[in-house]
Automatic annotation (TrEMBL):
<dbReference type="GO" id="GO:0004439">
    <property type="term" value="F:phosphatidylinositol-4,5-bisphosphate 5-phosphatase activity"/>
</dbReference>
<dbReference type="GO" id="GO:0005886">
    <property type="term" value="C:plasma membrane"/>
</dbReference>
<dbReference type="GO" id="GO:0046856">
    <property type="term" value="P:phosphatidylinositol dephosphorylation"/>
</dbReference>
<dbReference type="Pfam" id="PF22669">
    <property type="entry name" value="Exo_endo_phos2"/>
</dbReference>
<dbReference type="InterPro" id="IPR036691">
    <property type="entry name" value="Endo/exonu/phosph_ase_sf"/>
</dbReference>
<dbReference type="InterPro" id="IPR000300">
    <property type="entry name" value="IPPc"/>
</dbReference>
<dbReference type="GO" id="GO:0043813">
    <property type="term" value="F:phosphatidylinositol-3,5-bisphosphate 5-phosphatase activity"/>
</dbReference>
<protein>
    <recommendedName>
        <fullName>Inositol polyphosphate-related phosphatase domain-containing protein</fullName>
    </recommendedName>
</protein>
<feature type="domain" description="Inositol polyphosphate-related phosphatase">
    <location>
        <begin position="104"/>
        <end position="396"/>
    </location>
</feature>
<dbReference type="GO" id="GO:0034485">
    <property type="term" value="F:phosphatidylinositol-3,4,5-trisphosphate 5-phosphatase activity"/>
</dbReference>
<dbReference type="InterPro" id="IPR046985">
    <property type="entry name" value="IP5"/>
</dbReference>
<comment type="similarity">
    <text>Belongs to the inositol polyphosphate 5-phosphatase family.</text>
</comment>
Length: 396
């Protein structure tokens, strides 16, 4: 399944293999309508543009000062020369990155996982597709990590063709970026930041907040954010506040007279990937949700998803898009099984783990969501990992 979007539109498109055939859309109510085609459909959920929440109280979150990430540019394992066997998506040669008149393309593997305090060493390579080497960048967001750093665990899976680019760590909440070695001379302006949320969610091992890394490749700027929002079905508004606080605080700087009112670092980034345990839930009875999942009718649950509805109402994630939720809800499983929560709490299965995307100039940059899926073979946590395979084209 290949999902392609170009531009930000306020509708759900169900497309056949022919680009000009539209077989479904959002109605005025914003609810999902399904249509079928004999040639098969590629479904896409487009997260509609929304307005930001109002100003929040200053003590809702604490943001550390952005750090210039000069310590992260070692690339010491990289080859100094590039052979013809290397993946060179930039018009056949990486020098095109430095040519202001040339465009270039990147393939990105983004994955998020709440590890629930356990590292499955034997099966961890599945998180990164066993390091197949098909991607230019790996972006890895981790929540509830049992160790202070997973860099030395993750890097060997990818092998010597990849080098460490950046990390941003705040306790159990962690973000790592690895890149193909040929990128080493084209990455600049690296920096990291984090936003901490106060409250019970900040206990050791379950840190709530957001961590971020930013850098440029050529003239194009990238921003990656991994976050862990407040848990529990009823805390929708708290999650909204945490989104808005992150957007406001991440890489924040004093305003100047030259800046447009309301402009911020996120708006100025060419490509933004926001991933993590966002903790938005499916509203409805546990029995109903499990019944739909058992019948592979996940699409009928979209209109019950809190994040889907919040974006549709213009409350969060202005301008972001997401691939179709055609995989099973990723939380909460009995550890080691494919069974949803059988404890006394019997939590409603939900898509808590998400990857959202934003491009600044949709008229020039194109972003393909080649695949958006959960990784069901990793069962050591009560969450399933979620991966998005992305292709970004026409970068400069």
């Amino acid at each position: 399944m290949r999902t392609r979007f170009k531009g930000l539109v306020k509708r759900l498109l169900l497309r056949s293999s022919r680009k000009d055939q539209i077989v479904g859309s959002f109605r005025d109510s914003g609810l999902l309508r399904l249509a079928s085609s004999s040639t098969g459909n590629n479904a896409r959920m487009i997260l509609v543009q929304s307005q930001e929440l109002g100003d929040m109280e200053e003590n809702d979150a604490v943001s550390d000062q952005p750090l210039e990430d000069n310590s992260l540019d070692s690339f010491h394992s990289c080859k100094t020369s590039i052979s013809s066997s290397d993946h060179l998506p930039i018009h056949g040669h990486p020098a095109a990155v430095e040519d202001s008149t040339a465009s270039f393309n990147l393939r990105i593997y983004a994955v998020t996982w709440n590890m629930n305090g356990k590292i499955p060493h034997d099966s961890l390579p599945k998180l990164l597709e066993n390091g197949r080497g098909d991607y230019d960048l790996y972006v890895i967001g981790i929540q509830e990590s049992p160790v202070s750093s997973l860099r030395r665990v993750l890097h060997p899976i990818l092998g010597k063709q990849y080098s460490f680019v950046a990390k941003s760590v705040m306790g159990s909440l962690q973000l790592y970026v690895f890149g193909k070695c040929w990128l080493q001379h084209h990455i600049s302006a690296k920096k990291v930041d984090k936003v901490r949320f106060k409250g019970f969610g900040g206990v050791v091992g379950r840190q709530k907040g957001a961590v971020a890394a930013s850098f440029c490749i050529g003239n194009s700027s990238f921003l990656f954010i991994a976050s862990h929002f407040a848990a529990h079905e009823k805390k929708v508004n708290e999650r909204h506040v945490q989104y808005s606080r992150t957007r406001q605080k991440i890489f924040s700087r004093p305003s100047t007279s030259q800046e447009q009112p309301g402009s911020n670092f996120m708006d100025e980034s060419d490509v933004v990937v926001w991933l993590g345990d966002l903790n938005y839930r499916i509203e409805g009875s546990r029995g109903l949700v499990k019944s739909f999942v058992k019948q592979n009718l996940e699409k009928l649950l979209w209109k019950r998803d809190q994040l889907f509805n919040a974006v549709d109402k213009g409350e969060v994630f202005n301008g972001f898009v997401e691939g179709p939720l055609e995989f099973k809800p990723t939380y909460k499983y009995d550890v080691g099984t494919d069974d949803y929560d059988t404890s006394g709490k019997e939590r409603v299965p939900s898509w808590t783990d998400r990857i959202l995307l934003k491009i600044r100039d949709e008229s020039s940059i194109s972003l393909d969501v080649v695949n958006y899926q959960s990784i069901d073979s990793l069962r050591s946590s009560d969450h399933r990992p979620v991966k998005a395979l992305l292709r970004v084209t026409n970068l400069s």
